[in-house]
Design brief:
alpha/beta, Rossmann fold, Dihydrodipicolinate Reductase, domain 2, 9-stranded mixed sheet, 15 strands, about 30% helix
Length: about 450
């Protein structure tokens, strides 16, 4: 398990890479899949060898978070930028092998699992290829930009018997557990509306309007773009996680923060996929090179309730975490029951009674066990082969729900969704938007 695999020759790598590029639509390349795809597990007594793919700020944090566990070793790191690679290797004490092409990392037989921390437009393909190569996958959110990617990721994980975890770390917190217990206890009464609010203040400067320029030395910009459309290098896209301000790389703040915030609503209500989605928004204040909406409202309809998302990146109104309901919250999930309303964010919660309808304001006794930590859950699952709390199976309905909001916004109309057959009803244009439009030679394995 922890023994080092000898490096393959440059000629072998180039051959394998060319095969993988030519057969991107079939997986990671027939040679690699045949070599590594057999399911395997890690005995409890042995170390887990991880590969970190994407070594910017988030990836380097994962090196520290996972590296602190005694039964885990960071065996390899991968990034398309030499500077990030050097920093990542240094953070492992010089022990990790470095790769600029994730496909080469996935060829290494001693790597048990990978952490995918690239910009989001790469998340689906890398996760799918990792599953096909026999690796368990911890994928940062958002896991996808369109519904078809989410279903392909789930299919790859299930067919290859892979353990998966999505990087929605707040799911491991005790506050979310208490909120879920409150909702499920029935004390709020019937809940016809769940209201999700996300306010930020990124303006007026935003990310600016720097001119396009050559990429810095050591950056493979073509590989950074990967399946995304051809685009000239611009430093504002590349630094400080600014990829999140562009539709081609993340979608919108709904896709960026929704997996954290809307997760509470999904966990508590367990609604599955919606039956209709409508959206409205645009760029009304932003004056930079980004192209995502700075205001977005989305409305999802389910058989027994409606859920809304309201986001503004123009004014936070001085909202804060844990602020009382009469002032507002920067992030908030509100469960509007006919007995009471639960207002919650990452670390706090409060119940607002509806007149005298709330008979007993006491919260139910805790029943959902505490998490050992989001990363620890994943590591334990690698050994036990029992899926952790935020597996692809759990997260895909939420991911699909969020991406449908983007499709409704792009079409400018309400879309109807068939949750059993996972398709849009009666709207060919919208249905086409459920599929990714990858730059050649990349294709989504279906």
């Amino acid at each position: 398990m922890s023994s080092k695999k000898s490096e393959i020759s440059r000629r072998q790598f180039l051959k394998a890479s060319s095969i993988a590029m030519a057969t991107a639509g079939l997986g990671i390349g027939s040679a690699v899949v045949a070599q590594n795809a057999e399911p395997k597990s890690v005995p409890a007594s042995e170390k887990i060898i991880l590969g970190i793919i994407g070594c910017g700020g988030r990836g380097k944090s994962h090196i520290s978070w996972f590296g602190q566990h005694a039964d885990t070793e960071i065996g390899a790191v991968c990034d398309v930028y030499d500077k990030h690679l050097e920093e990542a290797v240094a953070r492992t004490g010089g022990k990790a092998r470095a790769y600029k092409d994730f496909r080469k990392l996935l060829e290494q037989k001693d790597i048990d699992a990978v952490v995918v921390a690239t910009p989001p437009h790469w998340h689906p393909l890398i996760s799918i290829y990792a599953c096909q190569a026999g690796k368990d996958v911890y994928c940062e959110k958002p896991i996808c930009l369109v519904p078809a990617e989410a279903y392909a990721m789930l299919k790859a994980a299930q067919e290859n018997k892979r353990v998966t975890q999505v990087g929605t770390q707040i799911h491991a917190g005790d506050n979310f557990r208490r909120c879920v217990e409150i909702v499920r206890s029935g004390m709020l009464g019937k809940i016809p509306l769940v209201h999700v609010v996300c306010t930020l203040n990124e303006y007026p400067g935003g990310i600016g309007r720097p001119a396009d320029s050559p990429p810095p030395p050591g950056l493979d910009w073509n590989m950074w773009l990967g399946p995304a459309p051809e685009s000239p290098f611009n430093m504002a896209k590349f630094i400080n996680g600014n990829h999140r301000y562009f539709k081609d790389y993340v979608g919108s703040w709904l896709n960026e923060l929704g997996p954290h915030i809307v997760d509470l609503a999904y966990w508590a209500m367990n609604p599955g996929e919606p039956i209709s989605v409508a959206a409205s928004g645009g760029r009304f204040v932003a004056d930079d090179i980004g192209d995502i909406p700075d205001v977005l409202e989305v409305l999802w309809e389910y058989p027994t309730f409606v859920m809304s998302w309201i986001h503004s990146a123009c004014n936070s109104f001085n909202y804060g975490y844990g602020a009382p309901p009469d002032r507002g919250r920067r992030l908030s999930v509100m469960f509007h029951g006919n007995n009471a309303t639960l207002c919650a964010d990452y670390g706090s919660r409060s119940i607002v009674p509806e007149g005298d309808r709330l008979v007993d304001p006491k919260e139910p006794e805790p029943s959902i066990p505490s998490s050992p930590g989001h990363e620890r859950e994943f590591l334990d699952a690698i050994k036990s082969r029992i899926q952790p709390s935020c597996s692809f199976e759990y997260h895909v309905p939420l991911a699909v729900t969020l991406t449908l909001g983007h499709i409704a916004l792009r079409t400018g109309r309400k879309i109807r969704w068939d949750p059993q057959n996972h398709r849009i009803i009666g709207d060919r244009e919208a249905e086409q938007l459920c599929q990714p439009n990858y730059r050649k030679p990349w294709r989504l394995p279906l």
